[in-house]
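User: Fold this; tokens only.

Assistant: Input:
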Amino acid sequence: MEFFSNGPGDPSAVPYAVETVKELLGKVPVFGICMGHQLLGQALGGKTFKMKFGHHGGNHPVRNMRNGRVEISAQNHNPAVDPATLPKGVEVTHVNLNDGTCAGLAFPSLNIMSLQHHPEASPGPHDSDFGNAYFE
């Protein structure tokens, strides 16, 4: 499994990273968080855009579209993935409830999953800790 972690900045500024991600798609399972989520979005052919204010800090409500649960998340990013630009077969798994932006993706046929928020930060007791439930 490859893991693409958070990192500062806009994925559009690192096209070489997007190309590296493209080379791995379909070869190994991939999981991304924050900037890793954005890199995956671009590697799949989607576009990212700069939000007016971004998401920073804790207490961002995110709906898990697979089970309907609301997770209270920690976030720190300015770019977001535009789901309208993603190819067919990519599922939006999480949505930010403050502004409706894409907060998670899955592409099961390629074993891809990503989250815009930081599941390891756990602003609530275990709000974003669902173990392997993301890949079920």
